[in-house]
Amino acid sequence: MSAATANILPKPSREAVRPNQLRAVFILCFAFAAVVGALQRDVLIGFDEITHVSYIAHIQSTGDAWPRLESLRILEPLAFHFTNSASYLNHPPTYYFALAHLGPTIEGNSGAVLGLRLLNIAIATVGFGALVALGASLGLSRIEEYAWLVPLLLAPVLTPLAGSVNNDNLAIASGCVALLALHRLAATNQSRWLLVAAPAMICAGFAKLTSFILVGGLVAGVLAIMVWRRSWQGWWLPVAAAAALVGAAPYLIFLAQYGSPTPATPGQIGLLTNPLPFNELTKDATGALSFPAYALAFVKAFIREWEPVVIDRTPLQLATLSAPVFALICALAGARAAATRLMRNEASATDIVVVAGLAAALVTAAVHIVFSYRHHIHYGFVDGVPTYSYTPDAYPRYYMPLGAVVPLACLLLLTSLRKTRLHMILASALIAAPVALIILGSPSEAQYTAAQKKPGLDIYRTRIIGAPEGAALER
After folding, report:
1. pLDDT at 334 over 90
2. DSSP code per residue over 230-293
3. Which among 27, 163, 165, 232 could disulfide-bond with 116, CB atoms 3.0 to 4.6 Å apart, if both were Cys?
4. Domain map of the chain by residue range?
5. pLDDT tens digits for 398-408?
């Protein structure tokens, strides 16, 4: 790799050197916000936390390192005793097994959730720290570094998720570490960074399938580009292939056990056929949507779920959802320029990871839409009533393992405008958009109160036949 190619971004201005104290403040702010959320949040509010906690509790109570998914039951949310309601999770037990041994005993101890949340905050902070370290290596000016860090810190889902018990935290942290490692691999050609990216890909696989596809796709894409550019070493590919095989192992086991890498357990089918309580989403539903209509609904749901709140948004709150759309438009513009440089063999390390990362995300999204549409066709209506499967499960947090690729691509556009008036305007917009989304787009206390009065999905509706009866459910 030539010296010119190794440069990550165009030559920075003289103000590019930033003290590490600023970056440390952002990391501390992330951890602090996650801890505040962990101290305040109800276990039934958001991110399926009670089911993830129940998975950990099951492993603790049975000692089974690889439990049958159909045997998983959900804890009731007050005294934390098992009910005989089936869990709908179908993830590998690796994340849950680790927390079962690192965390406090859960069954009968609702206060144990805080300890598990703090472990998740530690995992998430490692991922956020990796992104801060990536930004520190880019040679950014002061305003450019803010345009990188502020959208990451204020992404609506990241800090609340970090303060929850959820395997997405391991998935996202794995993706962030892999992104840093592969960027440094592309920039320096130093093999040690592949030895960081490979375990990150394994951890992504141990977390959940979508993160494995995303991170594995990023690894494959970056290595393919480096092979094409003849800037690689022969042993890299066997190492990456071996890591991919280890990361895929849980899904190969599921395939042998259940005939599918994503088993359709009774609990999951119960969730998919759950009558949808939010009538405003399905008031005109008369049958299954065509695939183009469903794909459009998927995109709309993805934007709506960027700030995941179960409320009727005001016009102003709906307008603030233009912030993620603006970021995606800027990212696509930056990615287009990166792809052009790549074709000319003039790509920087940032160009390489942006092109590979967005390609992996687009492939994953295509697979996700097709898979979700199959659920829509099979389970979207039960006895003429629209169900949970009628609406797309287009949750941005599924893509957060490579979520940082979007602001990274925005930086490519931003840095191309250096020495122009548009540079400051675009940088200010990239910083202001997530701030406006948080301040103006968040629901009011009155909206939260009204939302709490609406009926929600009954996650306890599917019973495990023959399971011992748990504590009476008080809700």
Report:
1. yes
2. T---TTHHHHHHHHHHHHHHHHHHHHHHHSSSS---HHHHHHHTSBP--HHHHTT--SPPPHHH
3. 165
4. 20-452
5. 999 999 999 99
